[in-house]
C-alpha cells in the first residue's frame, strides 16, 4: 500500500517537472526575433529607407534579425567567370587546413610553377613573381604570399547588397554609353 502511494507521488512530481520544463522551453522560444522572416537578400538597393547598413537587410537596429544560414563551400572544381580581367579568380576547391604562415605556404605546394603539373593545378601567373618595380623574382613575391588576401573560396552565399555592375563585354555588345553618371 505504502509503495503504491509513494509511486503515485513520484508520478505526480514527474508530471510537474515535465510540465515546468515545457513552460521553460516556451519562454526560450519567445526570445526569438519579433520581426519574423527577413526579406530575401540581394533584393534591396542602398539606401534602404532610413537604414544605412544594407547588411542588416532592412531590419531596424533595435530589432534582432534572424541570422542567415552559414554559407557552404562549393568544392566542385568548377571555375567561375571573372567579372573583369584583373579579378583574382575565386578558388574552386575547399581550402580547409591549408596553412599559409611564415614557415609554410600550402597553396604553393600545388600552385608553384615547378609542382603545378603534378597536381594539374594552374600555376600562379607571372604577376605573382613580380616585385613592386616589376622585376621578376625566382620565388613567389612577398606581395603575393598571403593568397587569401585576394582569393576567396567559392560558396553558395547570396550577395547581401544588390549590385549593378555590368562587365565590359556586355557594355560593348549592347552599345551602351559607359555609364549615366560618367559624364
Ligand atoms: C592539393 C593541391 C592544391 C592546393 C594545396 C591548393 N590548390 Fe588551388 N587549385 C588546385 C587545382 C587542381 C586547381 C584547378 C581546379 C580544380 O581542380 O579545383 C586549383 C585552382 C585554384 C584557383 C583557380 C584558378 C583559376 O584560374 O580560376 C585558385 C584561385 C586557387 N586554386 C587558389 C588556391 C589557394 C589560395 C590555395 C591555398 C589556400 C590553393 N589554391 C591550394 C590545387 C590546389
Ligand atoms: C595582391 C592580390 C593577390 C595575391 C596576394 C595573390 N593573388 Fe593570385 N591572382 C591575383 C590576380 C589579380 C589574378 C588575376 C590576374 C593575374 O594573373 O595576375 C590572380 C591569378 C591567380 C591564379 C590564376 C593564374 C592564371 O594564369 O590564370 C592563380 C592560380 C592564383 N592567382 C593563385 C594564387 C596563390 C596560390 C596565391 C598565394 C601564393 C596568390 N594567388 C596570391 C591576385 C592575387
Folded structure, characterized:
This protein is an all-alpha fold and 183 residues long. It has two domains: 2-56, no CATH class; 69-157, Flavocytochrome C3, Chain A (Flavocytochrome C3, Chain A, domain 2), CATH 1.10.1130. It has four helices and no strands. It has helices at residues 2-30, 106-111, 113-119, 168-174. The longest helix is centred in the N-terminal third of the chain and has 29 residues, at 2-30. Mean pLDDT is 79; it is low at 23-39. Bound molecules: heme C (HEC) (2 copies). One heme C is lined by residues 86, 88-89, 105, 107-108, 111, 122, 124-125, 127-128, 140, 144-147, 149-151.
Brief descriptors of the model:
Periplasmic nitrate reductase, electron transfer subunit; mainly alpha; iron; Flavocytochrome C3, Chain A, domain 2; elongated; Multihaem_cyt_sf; 4 helices
Mean pLDDT across the residues is 79
What is the overall number of helices? 4
Please provide the ordered H/E string of secondary-structure elements.
Answer: HHHH
What's the domain count? 2
Low-confidence region ranges: 23-39
Q: What is the CATH superfamily of the largest domain?
A: Flavocytochrome C3, Chain A
Structural class, from secondary structure content?
mainly alpha
Overall morphology: elongated
Q: What is the CATH topology of the largest domain? A: Flavocytochrome C3, Chain A, domain 2
Give the helix proportion (percent range).
25-40%
Bound molecules: heme C
What gyration radius follows from the Cα positions, in whole Å?
28 Å
Estimate the strand proportion: under 5%
CATH architecture designation of the largest domain: Orthogonal Bundle
CATH class of the largest domain: Mainly Alpha
Distance between the ends: 97 Å
Number-wise, the strands total: 0
Pfam family, one: NapB
Subcellular location: Periplasm
Protein name: Periplasmic nitrate reductase, electron transfer subunit
Organism: Marilutibacter penaei
Amino acid at each position: 500500500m505504502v509503495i503504491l502511494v509513494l509511486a503515485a507521488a513520484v508520478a505526480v512530481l514527474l508530471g510537474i517537472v515535465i510540465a515546468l520544463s515545457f513552460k521553460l522551453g516556451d519562454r526560450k522560444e519567445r526570445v526569438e526575433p519579433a520581426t519574423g522572416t527577413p526579406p530575401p537578400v540581394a533584393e534591396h538597393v542602398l539606401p534602404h529607407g532610413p537604414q544605412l547598413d544594407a547588411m542588416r537587410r532592412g531590419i531596424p537596429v533595435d530589432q534582432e534579425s534572424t541570422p542567415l544560414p552559414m554559407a557552404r563551400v562549393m568544392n566542385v572544381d568548377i571555375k567561375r567567370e571573372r567579372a573583369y580581367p584583373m579579378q583574382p579568380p575565386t578558388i574552386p576547391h575547399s581550402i580547409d587546413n591549408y596553412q599559409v604562415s611564415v614557415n609554410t605556404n600550402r597553396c604553393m605546394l600545388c600552385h608553384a610553377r615547378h609542382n603545378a603539373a603534378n597536381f594539374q593545378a594552374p600555376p600562379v601567373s607571372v604577376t605573382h613573381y613580380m616585385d613592386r618595380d616589376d622585376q621578376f623574382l625566382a620565388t613567389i613575391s612577398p606581395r603575393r604570399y598571403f593568397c587569401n588576401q585576394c582569393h576567396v573560396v567559392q560558396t553558395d552565399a547570396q550577395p547581401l547588397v544588390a549590385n549593378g555592375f555590368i562587365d565590359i563585354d556586355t557594355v560593348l555588345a549592347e552599345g551602351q554609353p559607359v555609364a549615366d553618371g560618367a559624364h
